Amino acid sequence: MMDFFSNIFGYALNIIYEIVKNYGLAIILFSILLKLLLLPLTIKQQKTLKKSQKLQVKLKEIQDKYSNNPEKLNQEMMDLYKRENMSPFSGCLSSILQIILLLAMFYLVSKPLTYMKKVDNEEINTYKEAIVQEQGENSVSTTYPEISIIKYINNKINNSEESNMETVENVDNTTVETTENEINNEVTENVVKSEEVDEEKEEINEDLYINMNFLGVDLSSIPKDNYKDWKVFIIPLLYIISSCISIKMTQVQTQTKQPKEKDDEKKKNEEPDMTAQMSKSMTWMMPILAVSVSLVAPLGLALYWLVNNILMIIERIVIDKFIVPKEEEENA
């Protein structure tokens, strides 16, 4: 199933990349597009969350009434959800969707040649063998071989372009004092060098080139393998900050006013709401999982999560302040 989503995301991401010619910018635009497509579902989830909050008082009354009868308690709670046309697991739908998107994007940024550039395994293996022969056994990552290939291709093409620029500069810098024969000889040598560079470039499929440089950060870098470069931790750190803001917003949204009761009665009768407890667990689990993965995955994945978090925060503010209250007034 992940292959299916990763292939679809890869098509979309490659189309955007071919327009903007920058991997990081393509990820940002892709994230915005995906958020817009999922907006109806997000609005529905926000409405469900609000409705679930209103049910907490009724659920508390049922918990107090049947605290000594667990079987009756569960039955009454399920009947309440049924009457309100709600599922006790409805709050987990968005979290499950996030996990699917997380895995699909992980596959995509781990294998951009397969899912984004649609390169077959035979050509990928050919490049792997070429890199090993040229640079040694440990030159290709066992975890992310396609990232190693992209780095190899990018370096070859960039070096070829630099060599061509040097060739042009050598011709332009030929002094007027040089004799005609010397000029001809030097031009001939530069042409030969240029042809050799072109031959080397022909061996590299330039269609596989992906511009991974985004604001001075190489999005193909993996933080745990480049821990000496402080720049690789900027995006994961920003993601952690945005996650804390998002979690705080979620906690504020899920807070409901409960009838006041004595502490001893509260401890005796309190039964945690299934939806609230699961939503709280998923709220913390997703960022912790994402941070852990972002440290061992290419930075393109962390960038996607960061942008997704920022869009989620904006989305929640807009929906909570404008869309949901407006519909509540219309239904009142």
Describe the structure.
Helix 3 crosses helix 13, helix 5 (93-110) packs parallel to helix 12 (274-294) and helix 10 (234-254) runs antiparallel to helix 12. The longest helix has 33 residues, at 299-331. It is built from 13 helices and two strands; from the N terminus they run H-H-H-H-H-H-H-H-H-E-E-H-H-H-H. It is elongated. Mean pLDDT is 75; it is low at 174-178, 190-202 and 256-272. The two termini are 42 Å apart. The protein is mostly helical. A hairpin with a 2-residue loop joins strand 1 and strand 2. The protein has a two-stranded antiparallel sheet with strand order 1-2. The protein has helices at 2-20, 23-37, 39-65, 70-83, 93-110, 112-115, 121-135, 145-172, 180-202, 234-254, 263-269, 274-294, 299-331, and strands at 213-214, 217-218.
- Tally the helices: what do you get? 13
- Strand arrangement within the widest β-sheet reads 1-2
Helix content range: over 70%
Share in β-strands: under 5%
Radius of gyration: 28 Å
What about the largest sheet? 2 strands, antiparallel
Structural class: mainly alpha
Low-confidence stretches: 174-178, 190-202, 256-272
Overall morphology: elongated
Please report the total strand number as a whole number: 2
Please provide the ordered H/E string of secondary-structure elements.
HHHHHHHHHEEHHHH
The mean pLDDT is 75
Q: Alpha-carbon distance between the termini?
A: 42 Å
